[in-house]
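Exercise: predict the fold of this chain.
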Amino acid sequence: MNKLLFILPFLVTSVFGIGISDYETSQIEITPLGQGTHLKVGRYTEIGKFRVKNNSNKKVVIQSITFRNYGKSNLKKSLENAKLVVNNEPVSTDFEARGSYITFLFNNGLTGGFILPAGDSNIFTIKANIVYARTGDSIELGLKNTEDFVATEAGTGFQSTLNTTPRLATYTLNPGSYNFQRNPSLIYRGKRSRQRKNIGVIRY
């Protein structure tokens, strides 16, 4: 009896160990889309486009995506109201821009993220207000690491596997679109605000 009790834990561990090691996590494929173009300050426009395909037979929940800008723009200064859009509908719930990085969140409080059914795909468009640019600024978003795309299998919670770390199209920013707004107090005092060249800024 003692020998049997000693062998049982070993057998149970071996069986579950084999099951986990043989388990295939869901495979996610990202394909860059869109064509880079010139963007003017003051526009709400596309700054990236890509397709996400779920190559598995399991439903996937996308929770967040972090992009790095391989261009020269400071995303925190240049962008406002950034969103990920699918079929003209915003699907991201929030974003955080910090220097060369921008993170989109998908936690809507109901599903825990954006649902991508088994074998399905969606085209995502990144849109934002361009509020600041200097001459030579550009936006070329891409994934630095596969871990920057956070998605899990519904039901199991296993992390989905990304096939590659793509870069999207390059968009150059045109600071030639200006909207200077005078401070009323300066106008009253007869002073003029100083205008800086080669910088486009939108003030609200």
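Check your answer against the key: The two ends are 80 Å apart (CA to CA).
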